[in-house]
């Protein structure tokens, strides 16, 4: 079955620390993968996407993600977190529709 | 910039009322989607549309219907609102490369 798993419900980091949010997917074909961010009370904003080619993709707001086919993973990273990055992050897999993970809430301490 | 707007940010309705949620996009996208978002469940697809007057059921269509009379407008209808339809409703339109752009959401409370 096609699915997306975000194993971490809630992550807390200090401002300036590095960040990695995990995402695992299950899909038999080449995946189209996305990361979205949702600030409180807002809709979702696309951070980055992977279709093919270079497995390290760059996105907006200084985020990047690495696709690892052998691990069925698409983890999101940022080298230095800012307080404004506090939000909920969703990984998504496109089949004939978008399948979302349940999200990871990021809290940033000053 | 792509803009997706939703008719209301907050809505309070009574059980049994008919509820209309409207979504408008300004980028001439063919594909549009309605999701509901609940804590711990992520986003779940209610209905989607690939073109005017076309609609497809998503994962949780029960209790909902949709209307797409014009390309830019996709409406979600709750025929008879129930308390278990209290949720955040998100509309999205999609580019030809599968990027979805979301509206700000409508937080619906059914009492």
Mean pLDDT of chain B: 94
Distance between the termini of chain A: 41 Å
Poorly predicted regions of chain B are none
- What series of H and E elements makes up the topology of chain A? EEEEEEEEEEEE
**Shape summary of chain A:** globular
Work out the radius of gyration of chain B.
Answer: 13 Å
Q: What's the layout of helices and strands?
A:
The complex is a heterodimer of chains A (110) and B (111).
Chain A: E1 3-5, E2 10-14, E3 19-21, E4 24-26, E5 32-38, E6 44-50, E7 56-58, E8 64-68, E9 73-78, E10 87-94, E11 98-100, E12 104-109
Parallel strand pairs in A: 2-12
Antiparallel strand pairs in A: 1-4, 3-9, 5-6, 5-10, 7-8, 8-9, 10-11, 10-12
Chain B: E1 4-6, E2 10-13, E3 19-25, E4 31-38, E5 42-49, E6 56-57, E7 64-70, E8 73-78, E9 87-94, E10 100-102, E11 106-110
Parallel strand pairs in B: 2-11
Antiparallel strand pairs in B: 1-3, 3-8, 4-5, 4-9, 5-6, 7-8, 9-10, 9-11
Overview of the structural elements:
The complex is a heterodimer of chains A (110) and B (111). Chain A has 110 residues and is an all-beta fold. Chain A is built from no helices and 12 strands. The model of chain A has no long low-confidence stretch (mean pLDDT 94). Chain B has strands at residues 4-6, 10-13, 19-25, 31-38, 42-49, 56-57, 64-70, 73-78, 87-94, 100-102, 106-110. In chain B, strands 2, 4, 5, 6, 9, 10 and 11 form a 7-stranded mixed β-sheet that branches. In chain B, strands 1-3-8-7 form a 4-stranded antiparallel β-sheet, with no helix packed on it. In chain B, β4 (31-38) and β5 form a beta hairpin. The mean pLDDT of chain B is 94. The chains are: A mainly beta (110), B mainly beta (111). At the A-B interface, β5 and β6 of A face β5 and β10 of B.
Concise overview:
With 110 residues, chain A is mainly beta. Chain A has no helices and 12 strands. The relative contact order of chain A is 0.33.
Question: Notable features of this structure?
Answer:
heterodimer; A: 110 residues; mainly beta; six-stranded mixed sheet; B: 111 residues; seven-stranded mixed sheet; four-stranded antiparallel sheet; 0% helix; 55% strand
């Amino acid at each position: 079955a096609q699915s997306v798993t975000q194993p971490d419900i809630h992550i807390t980091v200090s401002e300036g620390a590095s960040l990695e949010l995990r995402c695992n997917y299950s899909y038999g074909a080449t995946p189209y993968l996305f990361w979205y961010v949702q600030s409180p009370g807002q809709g979702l904003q696309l951070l980055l996407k992977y279709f093919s080619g270079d497995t390290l993709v760059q996105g907006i707001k200084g985020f990047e993600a690495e696709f690892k086919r052998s691990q069925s993973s698409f983890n999101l990273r940022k080298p230095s977190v800012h307080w404004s990055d506090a939000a909920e992050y969703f990984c998504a897999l496109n089949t004939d529709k978008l399948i979302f993970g349940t999200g990871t809430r990021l809290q940033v301490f000053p | 910039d792509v803009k997706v707007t939703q008719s209301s940010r907050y809505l309070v309705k009574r059980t049994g009322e008919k509820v209309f949620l409207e979504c408008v996009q300004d980028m001439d996208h063919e594909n549009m989607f309605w999701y509901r978002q609940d804590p711990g469940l992520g986003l779940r697809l209610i209905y989607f549309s690939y073109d005017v007057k076309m609609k497809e059921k998503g994962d949780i269509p029960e209790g909902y219907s949709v209307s797409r009379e014009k390309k830019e407008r996709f409406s979600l209808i709750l025929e008879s609102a129930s308390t278990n339809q209290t949720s955040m409703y998100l509309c999205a339109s999609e580019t030809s490369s599968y990027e979805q752009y979301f509206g700000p959401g409508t937080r619906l409370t059914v009492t």
